Amino acid sequence: MRLNGTMAVNAKDHLVIGGCDTVDLLREFGSPLHVMDETQIRQTCRAYHQAFIEGIPGGEVAYASKAFCCTAMIRIIAQEDLGLDVVSGGELYTAMAAGFDPARINFHGNNKTAEELRYALECKVGRIVVDNFTEIDMLADIAEGMGLRPKALLRVQPGVAAHTHAYVQTGQTDSKFGLSIAMGQATEAIDKMRRNAHMELMGVHCHIGSQIFEVETFSHTARVMANYMADVRDKLGFTMTELNLGGGFGIYYHEPDAAQAPAAYAQAISKALGDVFRLRSFPMPARISVEPGRAIIGSGDTTLYTVGTIKSIPGMRTYVAVDGGMTDNPRPALYQSSYELCLANRMSDQDTVLASIAGRCCESGDMLLWDMPMPMPVSGDILAIPCTGAYHYAMSSNYNRVPRPAIVLASDGAAHVVVKRETYEDVARNDLVPAHLL
Predict the structure, then answer these.
(1) Over the range 280-310, which residues count as b (16 or more CB within 10 Å of their CB) and which as e?
(2) Residues noted as catalytic
């Protein structure tokens, strides 16, 4: 397993994260356990800040909180001088509870409710990213009733099909997100929004997908969007001043993932935009934004599990069951995602078996990993899976009434709980029994 961030191996042959022995962490905080590497997360934030905010005039970075959202994480984002992308009232509430500056929040979503839009306007979020024609009318009506004129972007489909899993492609024309450039819907919506007295259209937004490694894919998207902004000016006489290119920057999970440094993306995007805008005599937008989520938090978290039962089927497969699974990591079931692993309490032991890591849920599909080389485990070993920060806890569930694990933030040899472990009482907290059943 490749060591990320502050990971190290100590004299006890244990995995260390943030200066903390993971065996000690599991003993103190319980299993399963998410361990966030604060130093690595902050270093990644700073790399994006340097590449896009310091490196591009008008550059802005908004952390996509859907990847992982809790008040402590939002505080880190604020301290590292990044903006924020939210997609629901719950994420917005968390941001406000963390004291985040609402002027630096972009509110996304393909089906925002009237209550969510009203809440966003009450909070005075910086940008509403409008997704469709229905939302244009809804936002205008609510804004008029509140006597406000919010700044808005329109999400468009650039027609770019990124090389990634079909479930996380979002920029092609056949998508639930945004309005098509090629079919003329985007331009029609822009014309409608710019004429509306109850919103101020600032520019356009796009997002082509997730876990994308090819720098050229982002360059191509930037060229498409820059040309489109110039086309709108030529057709409608309206010059937009903001461009948001979304996120999707890939991280390393396992070989052969080839993650790029933020500077590589920033330089390629900046060059592509500059080339087109100069050619089209279009002014460089006052704000050029990106929205990394996975790229910031993904590699900064490791999940620790305790090995339970081990079952070997002669001539077929060895199953190693752990005390977590699809309830804390649904990605393998959803996307056939893969990872690396290690035994955190026996880091130097050699691989002697091909094992498949099974979750605890009553589903045959609850498998975290298939046929991975590893030391022969025994019950009680601590299995560590790195790069579990993005879309793990965020998509976790209580299936089989399994409580969600705790999350600790580790740095400089100290660990602090940032999300408490759920109890059985938490799982049943919202249950009600009608009187006739008593």
Answers:
(1) eebebbebbbbbbbbbbbbbbbbbbbbbeeb
(2) 362
Q: Which two tokens stand for residue 237?
A: 């006489």
Return d(Cα 51, Cα 43) in angstroms, integer: 12
| Amino acid identity, position 384 | A
Q: What is the CATH architecture assignment of 8-37+298-427? A: Beta Barrel (2.40)
DSSP string, 361-414: SS-TT-EEEEEEEE----TT-EEEEE---SSSGGG---GGGPPPPEEEEEETTE
Q: What is the pLDDT of residues 341-390, one digit of tens each?
A: 999 999 999 999 999 999 999 999 999 999 999 999 999 999 999 999 99
Short-list 32, 29, 15, CA closest to 326: 32
Chain-centroid distance, C-alpha 383: 24
Given 3.50.50.60, 2.60.120.10, 3.20.20.10, 2.60.120.260, which CATH number is that of 108-292? 3.20.20.10
**To the nearest 5 percent, what fractions of the chain are helix, strand and coil?**
35, 25, 40
Question: Could you read off the pLDDT of 225-248 as tens digits, one per residue?
Answer: 999 999 999 999 999 999 999 999
When pLDDT is averaged across residues 311-336 and rounded to a whole number, the result is 95
Q: Which residues pair with 52 in a beta bridge?
A: none
DSSP state, residue 262: H
The beta-strand segments (E) located in 113-248 are 127-130, 151-157, 179-180, 200-205, 242-244
Q: How confident is the model at residue 161 (pLDDT cuts 50, 70, 90)?
A: confident
